[in-house]
Design brief:
With 357 residues, the protein is α+β, with helices and mostly antiparallel strands. The protein is built from nine helices and seven strands, in the order ααααβααββαββααββ. The protein starts with a helix and ends with a strand.
Length: 357
């Protein structure tokens, strides 16, 4: 392989020299013929065969030397302005193909180098940087999904093993079967949220805006959790303004309320309180969901909208850390705002702002 490549380089150099030789020979011959013809006519000189032969040999030698000089100069020029940048780009490309997204090409910004190569190098470096970021996100995503799937799968496996025990009482059988069902439900919820979040992030879901009463939607979503707050003896306090009309995608907004209400009831202890308010603030409709749960520290609050992040791991069996990431993405798409205020041990307040009609 190396021998063939070396032989190919020699043939390329010879071919390039012959091209320069033909060009120089043609130009030189035309110039000499014109010069000699003009000189002979002007000075009335008679050209003999001996003189013509001597001039032809000298001209041929000049053509050979000039062709060689041009070939050497062109080789050096191509080496500096073309071959070196191409080699750097090729080496970096091979590294990226092998999975090394940290590869970068230093920009030469040399006066002899083609400006186009610097544009290509800058574009390559930006591409490698983006690929590195995507690869990091992909690796983290796979690691997080794998980690989140282990818990429900382990629970289902344990309960499935217990269900195989002989002489199992009806009460235990129902308890273990419920454990398997809960684990399956959690896996299904996680897969559903992953698919929704993926479609939102890839802009495969487009908002279908329409005018509707936001207060009615919030009340309908809240009533879905009636059994939850009754079983946990949680007090509900609502202050929903009437006739607050918004122009938004109702289905996408329902994901926001369901996630916020679910989190509020999940983190509020027995006998606690959840407050839901809706007000019209100028051009915006403002929804606040407040709970008297465990709250969170400022360090946790900074990351609360990240995928798979769960500040309170004691409740991780009830969620998968995707709900608030989904909420944040929905609000970004709908050009709304969401923020959180929280105090450890006192609870949290999530505030959502949506532009009114």
């Amino acid at each position: 392989m190396k021998r063939d490549a070396h032989f190919g380089k020699i043939l390329y150099a010879v071919r390039r020299y012959l091209i320069f030789f033909v060009m120089v020979a043609f130009v030189t011959t035309c110039c000499m013929m014109l010069f000699v013809s003009t000189l002979a006519d002007t000075m009335e000189i008679t050209l003999t065969g001996e003189n013509m032969e001597k001039a032809a040999k000298l001209t041929f030698l000049n053509v050979v030397v000039l062709s060689l000089l041009y070939s050497v100069f062109d080789t050096v020029r191509r080496k500096l302005t073309v071959d070196r940048p191409v080699e750097r780009i090729t080496e970096a490309t091979k590294k990226v193909m092998q999975g090394d997204f940290s590869a970068r090409i230093p920009s030469s910004h040399h006066s002899l180098t083609e400006a186009r190569f610097d544009e290509i190098i800058d574009g390559f470096n930006k591409m490698a940087e983006e690929l590195g970021s995507v690869e990091t996100l992909r690796t983290d995503f796979i690691a997080n999904v794998s980690h989140e799937m282990k818990t429900p799968l382990a629970v289902m496996q344990n309960y499935g093993t217990l269900l195989q025990a002989p002489g199992l009482s009806e009460e235990k059988r129902i308890e273990y079967a419920k454990g398997v069902t809960d684990g399956a439900r959690r896996l299904a919820d996680m897969m559903g949220n992953i698919l929704k979040l993926n479609r939102l992030e890839n802009q495969q879901i487009y908002p279908q805006a329409a005018e509707f009463d936001l207060g009615e939607q919030i009340c309908e979503c809240l009533l879905q959790y009636e059994n939850v707050w009754e079983q946990a003896d949680i007090e509900i306090d609502t202050d929903i303004a009437e006739n607050v009309i918004v122009n938004a995608d109702a289905e996408m907004l329902s994901h926001v309320w369901n996630n916020l209400f679910s989190n509020a009831f999940k983190f509020t202890p027995t006998g606690g309180k959840v407050t839901v308010t809706l007000t019209a603030d100028g051009e915006n409709a403002v929804v606040a969901v407040k709970d008297t749960g465990c709250g969170m520290s400022p360090e946790v609050g900074v990351h609360i909208f990240e995928k798979f992040y769960q500040g309170d791991t004691s409740h991780s069996v009830q969620g998968n850390g995707l709900g608030l990431a989904l909420v944040k993405r929905v609000m970004d798409i709908m050009q709304g705002e969401i923020s959180v205020e929280s105090v450890v041990g006192k609870g949290s307040v999530f505030t959502v702002k949506i532009r009114r009609s």
